[in-house]
Amino acid sequence: MGGARTPILVGPTGIGKTAVALALAAIWPIEIVSADSRQVYRGLDIATAKPTPRERQRVVHHLIDLVRPGERYSAGRFALEAAQVISSIRQRGNLPVVVGGTGLYVKALAHGLFAEPPLDRPRRDQTTTVTDGMDHPTLVRWATRLDPGFAGGGGRQRAARAIEIALLTGRPLSWWQRTAAVQGSVDPWIVRLTVPRPVLHQRILARAEEMVRRGLLEEVATALAEGAPTAGPGMDGVGVREAVAVLHGQLAREALVDAIATSTRQYAKRQETWFRHQLGDDVLTLDATRPPDQIAAALAAAWERIAA
Predict the structure, then answer these.
(1) Which terminus, N or C, of the chain has the lesser number of Cβ atoms within 10 Å?
(2) Where are the beta strands (DSSP E) in 90-162?
(3) d(CA 46, CA 86)
(4) 188 in the same domain as 94
(5) 8-state DSSP, 231
(6) Residues 6+ apart with CB under 8 A from 15
């Protein structure tokens, strides 16, 4: 089935990647490797649209529920752990399929990031103390000042990382990514799902409504009660930060769905821009307006052609 190449299914949030991956399981003996920077956080199942327990029973999922909200989980760590998981899946005779919308995770796995220079630990801790005290807009403003190549997308952790690298090495993160790149861990076969923007917006709104209906506010309240920092890693993502605003009286409960949908649309737009410019030319683009089983069948047929 395609030799040693690894299928990587990408697309903006809410487009239906999980449904397509589950449909693939009816065609191939697969295990799914999540490439979602939010789903690594335990306890935020609704907020991060994790596959349900029933879906995880149907198909084995990896790299979900790894750390507590507030802990950092880097793209470099993902690439290392994903490569190990992919190797073990192949040893079992199954096909690993990477599924997710976090572009930096996909890039780290498929193309590599960069060889990080040694960083002085005391200075690094001091920098972390400073960035932890900044709100998200301030982090992005400083990251952009210190690194003109910083695109402004992503959460607090990505912006804090750009500040840290620039201050501790004297070079911006974008410079290190260009000049100290290392080879990726897998030979990728990237499949990108796409739909017209109005269709995606409709799906995003439906998902926001479903998240709130299923108990998003209660889930986030539990995470806060268990000690998760209000704006720490995992708590600064779309859906979570809007729920936090409601719980703190900064946003009306009846405005929650629209606030989540608006933030999600903005995030999806950034994702699509990243996918268009960062994935390279060897990408199979599939129309995701079709039912998941039809998309999976088209993907499988294309895979068989490259394997021939």
Answers:
(1) C
(2) 95-99
(3) 26
(4) yes
(5) T
(6) 193, 194, 195, 200, 203, 268, 288
Which alpha helices (DSSP H) does 133-283 contain, by range? Answer: 136-146, 156-169, 173-179, 197-214, 216-225, 240-247, 256-278
- Looking at 179, 204, 219, the residue that finishes a domain is 179
Over the Cα atoms of the chain, what is R_g?
A: 19
Q: At what angle do helices 256-278 and 240-247 cross, to 10 degrees?
A: 160
- The verdict on 159 and 15 lying in the same domain is no
Q: Do 92 and 55 have their domain in common?
A: yes
65 with 188, same domain: the answer is yes
- Which of 157, 179, 201 is the last residue in one of the domains? 179
Domain of residue 162, residue span: 121-179
Residue 197 tokens read as 């923007």
Q: What single-letter DSSP state applies at residue 138?
A: H
Q: In what order do the strands lie in the sheet with 187-194?
A: 61-62, 30-34, 95-99, 5-10, 187-194, 283-287
CA distances from 277 to 171, 274, 282 (A): 23, 5, 12
pLDDT tens for each residue of 20-75: 999 999 999 999 999 999 999 999 999 999 999 999 999 999 999 999 998 988 88
Query: Hey, what's the torsion of the CAs at 291, 297, 298, 304, to 10 degrees?
Result: 170
